[in-house]
Amino acid sequence: MLLSYSVTGGQTWNGISQVTTAYDGGYSAIWMPSATGEYIVKAAWAGNVTVQGATAFADLAVVPYDAKNVFSVISNSTISALSFNSDSKELDFTVTGASGTYGYIDVFIAKTLIPNVDNAKV
After folding, report:
1. pTM above 0.70?
2. Which tens digits make up the pLDDT trace of 15-63?
3. Phi and psi of 92, rounded to 5°?
4. How far apart are CA 71 and CA 76, in angstroms?
5. Which of 17, 52, 74, 108 is the most buried (most CB within 10 A)?
6. Which of 85, 88, 87, 63 is nearest to 73 (CA)?
7. Taking CA 110 as the corner, what is the angle to CA 90 and CA 97, rounded to the nearest 5 degrees?
8. Residue-range domain boundaries for the chain
């Protein structure tokens, strides 16, 4: 799998890593974005003589807080307006996608901001 990211809405791509898939098709890589902002992450496989190639995309948004990157929001839909209110401890963002489709979103917040997950609200 060739992993890459774009900060230009998919017009240009920067390489992250090339990884080998496991027997079940799973793969992983570690990548720390060098700046906050909104990214598109792409995983592409060219295919071979027996299996057709495939490409998958995910949106990733990273916001700083207290000079650290402590949030990440990953989705196969479009993420925008990501912000954190330090007074109310609220993470706010908008997710949009094509009508009639299904999406997912993964939100990661540092334990230093919400040490007790019983206080977290979705």
Report:
1. no
2. 999 998 888 878 888 887 877 788 999 999 888 898 899 998 988 887 7
3. -125, 140
4. 17
5. 74
6. 63
7. 60
8. 2-119
